[in-house]
Description:
By secondary structure, this protein is mostly beta strands. It has helices spanning 7-14, 82-90; strands at residues 22-30, 37-40, 46-48, 51-55, 58-61, 73-78, 97-105, 114-125, 129-135.
Amino acid sequence: xxxxxxxxxxxxxxxxxxxxxxxxxxxxxxxxxxxxxxxxxxxxxxxxxxxxxxxxxxxxxxxxxxxxxxxxxxxxxxxxxxxxxxxxxxxxxxxxxxxxxxxxxxxxxxxxxxxxxxxxxxxxxxxxxxxxxxxxxxxxxxxxxxxxxxxxxxxxxx
Length: 158
């Protein structure tokens, strides 16, 4: 799926220098806990669409779009405080945790250029970093119940 950006975002991405850089916002949610972790890859806190995103440096690769593969991404957040680690420890490995990528411009943080919500998998936490893989559950390739329809088992079909 191609990413469609506004003309000002295209100009910022083409520009080789300048202070207007795109900002990646993350929303980390889980159905088991109330509250959402909102962080921004920026030097200052950002207020976007009524939500406050705390400035926190993280490394990420945006989801790729390879043919015949599910989109995958990686996420590493600096473990600078116990609040994120405590939240993840309460989830016991963070099953059913969703991470939403939101791409905005610093000059207009209320206009969302691009967003995608992915599942957090393979979460690891150490003293320095919280890292995990992001992707989608491969529901189309999950084996289902084997049912064979034969004249003996389903006479109404034959």
